[in-house]
């Protein structure tokens, strides 16, 4: 297991990034380890150790078994939280399961979302998902947009559900606050459930516009979470290199834009020529793969560069700010720019070309050195 910037104090690691050291990309953080503000990304990730501070992780399957002192940001395919979390939780995944105690709020975007009877949420729950099941007590309120929604626990606050298919209250359900429900049919309330008046608003199942909005929102949040995780990993693995690209963009924005435009146009032509000559068949595929990788990498770096631009506008010294600030701020800004027609797209194109040009120049200088 490889870690970047570790500073040891007994068995407490002050540095925070853990990346795969084996070919399969799997990571296991041992139960004897204690990390501070841990960032983990791999194929299958298991965090058994304690985290002092925040935990950000992503993977095909992610299991959080160790306690987390503050917040969790987690994205992937199958996500399981089986421990105690002191702060808030933000999750985006296919199958999401919460089996532990959460001190703050929980925001979840997922296909199948389950809060088991072993879970406890000290704040509010906000969920967008297909199948949503809440079997654990909630101290705050619940807000759900989903397909099939089931609530079978005590909820101290209010409940607001917008379901495309159904809402059910199990026999163990107890809702102290108001219940607002929008769906195709009346809610089902089992015997023993303690639920007051349900403010029901009927909606049609064939409301394609709302379905499209829900799918779009789900895709946007998953994409944003993935971008933040990828940018965090890249920024911690290559902190000085990322900052060097930002410095290059900041000092020479127009020349970098020009080089970015050249690199965007010329390599595909060269790859095509090599492919046609037959002799350069293999070289064309290698060059094409490098070109595509550079474009994907530039998209991540552009989000970080956007964050640095914003930090500079706020008159903050960009060489002293914590790594996560330009990453998170930039990822959000970069994602929102994509929703703004014309002006947003023009700004994104300019930043993208600047970043691409800086990436090419920094790589060229590295080769020369």
Walkthrough of the structure:
By secondary structure, the chain is an alpha/beta fold. It folds into 3 domains: 1-79, no CATH class; 88-205, no CATH class; 219-368, no CATH class. The chain has 6 helices and 21 strands. The protein has helices at 208-237, 239-251, 253-276, 281-313, 324-337, 343-368, and strands at 2-4, 8-9, 12-13, 17-19, 27-29, 34-41, 44-47, 50-64, 72-81, 89-98, 101-102, 106-115, 120-121, 125-134, 142-151, 154-155, 159-169, 174-175, 179-183, 188-189, 198-202. The chain has a 17-stranded mixed sheet that branches. The protein has a two-stranded parallel ribbon with strand order 11-13. A two-stranded parallel sheet has the order 16-18. The longest helix has 33 residues, at 281-313. It is elongated, with a radius of gyration of 24 Å. Mean pLDDT is 83; it is low at 1-15.
Summarize the structure.
This protein is α/β, with parallel strands linked by helices and 369 residues long.
Biggest sheet: strands, sense, closure? Answer: 17 strands, mixed
Q: Low-confidence segments, ≥5 residues, pLDDT <50?
A: 1-15
| End-to-end CA span | 29 Å
Report the radius of gyration as a whole number of Å: 24 Å
Q: Helix count?
A: 6
């Amino acid at each position: 297991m490889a870690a970047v910037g570790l500073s040891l104090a007994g068995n407490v690691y002050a540095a925070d990034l853990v990346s795969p050291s084996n070919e399969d990309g799997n990571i296991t953080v041992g139960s004897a380890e204690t990390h501070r503000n841990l960032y983990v990304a791999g194929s299958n990730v298991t965090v058994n150790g304690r985290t002092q501070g925040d935990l950000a992780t992503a993977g095909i399957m992610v299991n959080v078994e160790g306690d987390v002192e503050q917040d969790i940001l987690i994205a992937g395919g199958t996500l399981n939280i089986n421990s105690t979390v002191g702060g808030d939780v933000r999750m985006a995944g296919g199958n999401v399961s919460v089996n532990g105690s959460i001190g703050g709020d929980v925001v979840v975007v997922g296909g199948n979302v389950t809060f088991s009877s072993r879970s406890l949420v000290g704040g509010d729950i906000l969920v967008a998902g297909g199948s949503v099941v809440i079997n654990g007590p909630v101290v705050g309120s619940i807000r759900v947009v989903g397909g099939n929604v089931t609530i079978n626990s005590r909820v101290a606050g209010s409940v607001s559900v917008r379901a495309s298919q159904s809402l059910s209250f199990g026999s163990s359900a107890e809702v102290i606050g108001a219940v607002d429900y929008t769906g195709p049919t009346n809610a089902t309330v089992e015997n023993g459930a303690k639920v007051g008046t349900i403010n029901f608003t009927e909606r049609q199942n064939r409301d394609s516009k709302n379905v499209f909005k829900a799918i779009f929102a789900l895709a946007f949040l998953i994409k944003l979470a993935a971008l933040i995780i990828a940018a965090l990993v890249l920024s911690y693995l290559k902190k000085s290199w990322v900052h060097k690209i930002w410095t290059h963009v900041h000092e020479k924005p127009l020349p970098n834009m020009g080089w970015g435009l050249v690199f965007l146009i010329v390599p595909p032509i060269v790859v095509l020529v090599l492919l046609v000559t037959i002799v350069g068949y293999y070289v064309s595929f290698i060059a094409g793969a490098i070109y595509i990788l550079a474009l994907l990498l530039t998209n991540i770096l552009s989000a970080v560069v956007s964050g640095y631009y914003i930090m500079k506008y706020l008159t903050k010294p960009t060489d002293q700010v914590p790594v996560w600030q330009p990453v998170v701020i930039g990822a959000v800004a970069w994602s929102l720019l994509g929703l703004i027609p014309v002006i947003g797209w023009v700004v994104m194109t300019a930043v993208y070309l600047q970043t691409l040009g800086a990436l090419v120049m920094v790589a060229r200088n590295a080769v020369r050195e």
